[in-house]
Amino acid sequence: MGLNNVIAPGMKAAFYGRHSTDKQNMDTQLRSAYDFANHYQCKIIGEYLDEAVSSRRKERKGLEALIRDAAEQKFDFIIIYSASRLARIPKEHDTLRTTMNILGIHIVESSTETLYSYGDIVYSSIKDALAKYEMDKIRASTRDSIKTLLNMGLWTGGRAPFGYKYHPKLSRTGEKDNSEAVKEFTKHLPIEDSMAIQRGKFEIIDHELILAKRVFSLYKDGYGFQQIAEKMPAKSYRGKNWDKNKVKQIIINPFYSGVVAIRKRNPSSRSSLNDREDWLMNKNSNIQPIISFNEWEECFRIYEQRKEKRLPPNYYKTSFLLANLLFCKTCDQELKGKDQRSKGYGKRIYICNGCGFKVSIDDVHQEVMNLFLKMQTKTAEQLVKTVQEKILKDCYEMESNIAVISNALEQEKQKLFNLNEKIEKMFSSNGDETIIKLLNIGKETLLASIQDKTSQISQLEKSIKVLKDIDANEELIKDKMMDFKRLVELPKSKIRRIYLYFIERIYVEPPGRLECKFRINLEEDV
């Protein structure tokens, strides 16, 4: 069908344009559309624009408005620059064509002066496939560009996080190359100003960073996202109130430790994160950090444990400082904290649900505190050495376990290979169906065991990485030792963290005698 059979002088047109990157100029699309309208003596009565919006975005306000107005018959036809401006996935093209055909509204491409909404099916399919190919090419190119910026220690784009403002670099390459002029100009400037002009600069927003530091501090003290948000001053998040998501975005962002990360988010669900193994991270010297990378790692580990329900919301922030640590010597059951003061009498206690043995919270807390104070005779250097030796020992044990499991895994894989061969031979020779069925049951059991062992190895490898990268870090250990040395001065949430760090479990038996089993041997030479 030719355009002259569809478009007549005086008809009303709508223009739809979209671009996703800075290099794709909307002016080109608009100029082409207005030239097309003039040529066919038509009038564009509305412009529907989606600027800096990817075709992958499900929410495109310009396109949504276009479809709404098309349903109300506000115009006779639609002008687009090319099919790729509307969509890039063939399925999306089919949906748009069907919708506009039902409404009786044609779509024309100004760049080729062809009809988008009709035509040969094979030709349309080829065009749609090419549009998808172009999208994949742009996506790959964008990913490569961002990765290059990351590896160079440069900002990868987007709005700077809360507490910072980004000033783009002034040097340019390509058609607007000014590198020589910039080089000459910056020769006589201080090195800091010179680098800012050539690489860009992050300006610190002091009053915001004070709040960001408080967010990390409260999170380490055991507060949850919502609790932290409620503690923040009103309208102090860029003129808006805080909420739990704003707090979360600070906690999960390594930017605050001077590190830029890409590929953090799952493309199919922007609210969820990819596995840490998929992230690409690099230190950026332009960022002035407010915490160390190891401190951020510690916060992120707490976040992951809470997300996976491995930690209850008030795991750290509880008045029962020995929760999950205190066990009955007689029953080997955990003693649970119970507050009996609401009855007008009684007190807070730990109680064994097995035998009913009770111990006063004040008595047992004081006894454990006294035990720790007694062990403070060790120097900080001795404590750091003791902790590091324990971590190395734990790593060695886990690596030994990995070797044992890996050996068993290889044996099971060989068994699976032999079993598959046997099943295949029996199939080809029309063997006994009952035996084949039994072999398949054995195969399923073997596959489940292989999957379980693979998961065990993966979990052990992650644990070793955490121990080596975070727990063995000397600065973090020193921080904990500083807390250990001034235990009586600490808030309860930090005291609980120290107990959880050093104590494996405490056995208690009537009339209240304690037997403490430490993760790290602190009793030596005491």
Write a structural description.
The protein is of the alpha/beta class and about 525 residues long. Among the domains are: about 5-115, 3-Layer(aba) Sandwich (Rossmann fold); about 200-310, Hect, E3 ligase catalytic domain fold; about 380-490, Helix Hairpins (Orthogonal Bundle). Helix content is about 50%, strand content about 15%. The strands form 6 sheets. The chain has a 5-stranded mixed β-sheet with strand order 2-1-3-4-5, with helices on both faces. Strands 12-16-17 form a 3-stranded mixed β-sheet. Strands 13-14-15 form a 3-stranded antiparallel β-sheet. The protein starts with 11 loop residues before the first strand and ends in an 8-residue tail after the last strand.
Alpha plus pi helix count:
16
Kindly report the spatial arrangement of strands forming the biggest sheet. 2-1-3-4-5
According to CATH, the homologous superfamily of the domain at 3-116 is: Resolvase, N-terminal catalytic domain
Estimated share of beta-strand residues: 5-15%
How would a textbook summarize the main sheet?
5 strands, mixed
Percentage of residues assigned to helices? 40-55%
CATH-defined topology of the domain at 3-116:
Rossmann fold
Oligomer: single chain
Q: Measure the end-to-end span.
A: 95 Å
Compute the average pLDDT.
Answer: 77
> Pairing-aware structural class of the strands and helices?
alpha/beta
Question: Residue ranges: pLDDT <50 for 5 or more in a row?
Answer: 118-133, 138-142
CATH class of the domain at 3-116: Alpha Beta
The radius of gyration over CA amounts to 33 Å
Which of globular, elongated, flat, extended, rod-shaped describes the shape? extended
**Secondary structure tally: strands:** 17
